[in-house]
Amino acid sequence: MTDFNMKTDADGVATITWDTVGKSMNVLNRQGFIDLNDLIDQALADEAVKGVIITSGKEGSFAGGMDLNVIAQMKQEAGDNPAKGLMDGLMQCHGVLRKIERAGMDDKNKGGKPIACAMQGTGLGIGFEIPLACHRIFVADNPKAKIGLPEIMVGIFPGMGGTTRLVRKMGAMAASPFLLEGKLSDPKKAKMAGLVDEVVPADELLAKAKEWVLSSPSIVKPWDEKGYKMPGGAPYHPQGFMTFMGASAMVNGKTQGVYPAAKALLSAVYEGAMVPFDTAIRIEARWFTNVLLNPSSSAMIRSLFINKEALEKGAVRPEGVEDQSVKKLGVIGAGMMGAGIALVSALAGIEVVLIDNSQEAADKGKAYTATYMDKGIARKKATEEKKEAVLGLINATTDYQALSGCDLIVEAVFEDVGVKAEVTAKVQDVVGPDCIFATNTSTLPITELAKASKDAEQFIGIHFFSPVDKMMLVEIIKGAETGDRATAKALDFVRQIRKTPIVVNDARFFYANRCIIPYINEGIRMVTEGVKPALIENAAKLLGMPLGPLQLVDETSVDLGVKIAKATKAAMGDDYDDAVDEILFWMADEGRLGRKANAGFYSYDEKGKRGLLWEGLGEKYPVSDSQPDLTEVQNRLLFAQVLEAVRAIEEDVLMDIREGDVGAILGWGFAPWSGGPLSWLDMVGTPWAAETTNALAAKHGPRFKAPDLLEEMAAKAESFYQKFDPARAA
Length: 730
What we know:
Elements lengths: L3 E5 L4 E6 L8 E2 L1 H16 L5 E6 L4 E3 L1 E2 L2 H9 L4 H21 L12 E5 L2 E3 L1 H8 L2 E5 L6 E2 L13 H9 L1 H9 L3 E2 L1 H7 L4 E3 L4 H9 L24 H18 L4 H13 L4 H16 L2 H18 L15 E5 L3 H12 L3 E5 L3 H20 L5 H9 L1 E4 L10 E4 L5 H12 L7 E4 L6 H4 L9 E6 L8 E6 L5 H13 L3 E6 L6 H18 L3 H10 L6 H8 L1 H15 L8 H9 L12 E3 L5 E4 L2 H5 L9 H21 L6 H12 L8 H8 L1 H15 L7 H9 L3 H5 L1 H4 L1
Helix pairs in contact: 1-3, 2-3, 3-11, 5-6, 6-9, 9-10, 10-11, 12-26, 13-14, 14-15, 19-21, 19-25, 20-25, 22-23, 28-29
């Protein structure tokens, strides 16, 4: 069986249809490249063929991208020289696309057969790079379709000609959002931007493409014409020089130099812009090879593509449990979290009952969805009809009887054991015996909360991150008695609302907060030691953290930190470390509660725009004359998080190593370039990690002592993915 087939009609138009066997969306593998190449050869050699249409056999889409096993195969084929294997393999792929682009033309651009691409919808990565090599791109008018080159989001860049062709087609400035940000567009916006040529009704797609093919069109690409000049100017042109200078500053400013793909992409564009097309393609391939061999890119691909996709498809779902998709959802508490949960659930087509103590509060929670939809309408992302349909799914009420028939309850009330217990009892007096009860909490032990339930086996924790509509991670927490059906229910619900789940066992702060709180605390602790606050914040950002620890406190609120500190101290007693309490309590007393109060570790203007670090901090905690070096500050901030991830494995809180890395990146933004805390340990090596963190422990305290698991692995020079990766074990 082959993924490509070709039929030639009576008018001499050969239609090559891409239909990957066993997949809902086309994915290009190594054999697919070979088959496509052979069919193009046949079409170009057949005198009866006047032109070619490349299309998809999948309804609503063209292709989702490349099978990453192709890259692994290229590496393996060269044995001890993976760089050569990648370079040779990439140039073979480029040869196929260049053959499509030249379509049999001679050196004087004479002859050749027109090749059109007819895209039924979504085309991503190689699914857009193949169309870019064709002479004209037709796309069905499918508003749900997404077109673009998202490779930068997983640590690589468009390396099958997409970078070189898009820059030559649009110019570096216009192409930059699609290359450096991975921006995706629907068909009409793609046409407006110049990504595609025509958007036509879906039922006319092939007919329009055929009409063009038979119209004897000019098929020479601009960059193959004599005298071609790059739109916006080449690097040595005054206008182009300004573009590339600005792009370099922008890339380094946004990436802080820790994302190799962005820098490599810019290098490929800059160097390729000064040479003929075929040389530029080779330059692109060299930079792409460089990125593919970089451990950062490999880790990002594994965590943000392979592992993330596996978790979303149910890699950790209990076996043998039938589908648990939610039909009717009850959300208790219409505050910010509850309102967000109701929104994403209604957007997924789930009927929602939103409960609060007063009708006013319930209506306010529902109004959050109305406001969200209004913003979508203003941006032409939604319609009034869609808004009414979504709002129609939410019943905002104070009446618990409305929960009758719910198969899942998500309780999102105040973080208090007594309040949650009271709500649990009220709900279970109404819902049926098969209804699963989930509590949304970020800190309270699930096993303890489950004591208020009639059936602890059907009680589970679901930790949403704020704001719910924007944050992609959902942390599912199993109590000591949580059963498989409750776990499956939570996972299936998260899949319905299009989030990424991780499943962890019950422990204080679960997984995400047990890692992020030490990061925050370490930053605050350094302030009390006299380390410059600006050094702390910039050290974090140079690591690729989205927010420094002090800014993160401002964003989440200082008083939340105070509440967590008090609750933790009450629970832990003498084992509690109160090193940062003084500064948090002092700031709370000063009314500096963070962004929400326009005053925190940072200063803010009257509109809430963040300014510089607050000068009063230095008056209370004077800056020391002697400052640590940048590396020491960064190691303290990194290991504060990473060691907790190791302990989470050691204590069986994390049951799957993939969840540790994916959860870290999506949950609190742990240095995405690293692939996650466990991937980072593999990158630097467990022996170095153990030695470095023990040196920190000797200087700064036992919180940095390497866990036994890390010590054991360091002694054997083991890596975490070598030891724990489920995919490897399989």
